[in-house]
Amino acid sequence: MRWSQSFIPTLKEEPSDAEVPSHRLMLRAGLIRQLMAGAYTYLPLGYRALRKAEAIVREEMDRAGAVEIHMPAIQPIELFERTGRIHSFGNVLIHFDVARRGQKVRLALGPTHEEVITDLISRHVSSYRQLPFTLYQIQTKFRNEERPRFGILRTSEFLMKDAYSFSASVEQLDQAYQAMYDAYCRIFSRCGLEYVPVEAESGPIGGDASHEFMVPAPNGEDRILRDTKSGYAANIERAVTGRRPSPVPAEAPADAPPMKSLDTPGTTSIEQVSKLLKCKPHQMIKTLIYLAINEFRGGRPQPVAVLIRGDHEANENKIRRVLGAESLELADEETIQKVTGAPVGFAGPVGIRCPVIVDHDIPLMEKAVVGANAADAHLVGVRIGRDWLPSTVGELQAVSFKIEGNADDRTTFDLRNAAPGDPSPKGDGTLELVHGIEVGHVFKLGAKYSVSLAATFVDEKEQSHPIIMGCYGIGVNRILAGLVETRHDADGIIWPISVAPYEVVVVPLNVQDPPVMELAERYYRELQDAGVDVLLDDRDLRAGAKFKDADLVGFPLRLVIGGKGLQDGVVELKWRDQPEAEKVPVADAVAAVRRQVAERQAALKAV
RNA sequence: CGGGGCGUAGCUCAGCUUGGCUAGAGCGCCAGCUUUGGGAGCUGGAAGUCGCAGGUUCGAAUCCUGUCGCCCCGACCA
Length: 607
Fold this sequence. Notes:
- By secondary structure, the protein is of the alpha+beta class.
- The chain is built from 16 helices and 30 strands.
């Protein structure tokens, strides 16, 4: 392609409404243009890069044994009603009515395709002998993001590879999951992307295992905790704190001063109380009243007090799992009034009338500031063991929480988000916090959709079972955004050769100079014939402008033909990620480019 | 959905507080001359319903009301 014939609107100045590097640079390099919030046009260079990433995804999915199909983006909303996801997606699902022969047809634009594919499979699979298999597609998805942001990192329309595995057994699911996991590692490596697979929360609905593939980047929206020593990494929802159960003291030292009640009118938050009483949040205990719904109680909500150190964040998934509850929500005002005898904001463990569970860190606090279970008051100098005790295992079991252990024991649990500095759950390292961009997700779905959409098979004993599913997504656009976000310098993007819009840019410094231009044209032709992906910068611009543009777009290899070099019989080869250029004799340039490009490509493919 | 910011030429912005001459600059664009290895110089030129609607006024980019759009922080995000 000749630069003059393509459409590459580079910008010299920073666009005013872009802040993160990927957004800024993709606009400036002429890769994308915004149509509206959350929707971008891919211009020639951006689209080429996107298609290269897509091709790598496709190759590796095929290699992993997945089979490509293509499903409609428009879907009957009835499918989402059957799975209940019309509610769980809520406003994110884009749906609308159309008229057909006077009838109203209710449509949705696919935010993902579990419903469509499970419906399809339910009609055509009936025996274990047809299983297992994995299907995938690469297609535009639509989600009405409440707040699109960061350029193409978070948009309402995006290109996604979504794969679905169908298995007759958990063993088959595990195999399909591992095949996808391995394929993802190859995909991101081949794309030249630095990535970390992290353990992820599989959410309240189904599934028991899930990994997210994260690109560590300061602008990532996800927070992950990792310990580089042991290789442990998990998203903040999932990360285990590495704390052990702490012994609950039975009493306090004899000379410890008794607890004291202080007036704290209108101070209901940790922040307010710490300010008023001049204490630090980590000297306080947060008492959160939850309502747990447990099937054994016939769905009747059971209040429970959860105690967390003041500077920590409660993790509802961990609490729910500890209690073995179906669902969990913060208690309403009425319940709090009933349990604490006080309005919201003054709950504490002393004298509370519901079961109490505590985080591992709580007994480590010698004394603490807590709510007084009375309006406008807090207690200071409160000691566990003397002033209050957590519930015993037996007491918790009695209200039907599924907790193992000796009935008389009082124990502690991991109930909070892990934080940087916490000990790693593996090895002796500590956890550090990094931000990440989620580029992929593998997920053992289980039978959630096969049950609601009646996708079943019969086994060799003619017993009917729901098909066991897995789902596996990759945000193709985010591969590009992740690359630009992590591979750029002050001058522009630094593409890995595998997804660069062009592998080589041929730059004749003066298109008016016939010998220079003739050689450039010859290189262009010969490189094209050799299968090299080459762009000829045939614009009649000054050298400086061409160099700036080449650096901005970030072509991996630049081949410069200048009048002076030509007099010495040399041209110049420069890799975008190397500081120095290499001079090569005119006659050797094509061979050198072919060899070096092939080497770079091979290095990325070999992984 | 809460909080903040911004809409003036293709891009980046000034002008608005205190209403008043023909609405400006730099970059880009067009023509010409010079220049030719890191976004050149000179000369000339084209280009804006000042986001939109309404109001106040003799007069509105400027003041008021409404509305639309975009960006950022937060909430939300299988």
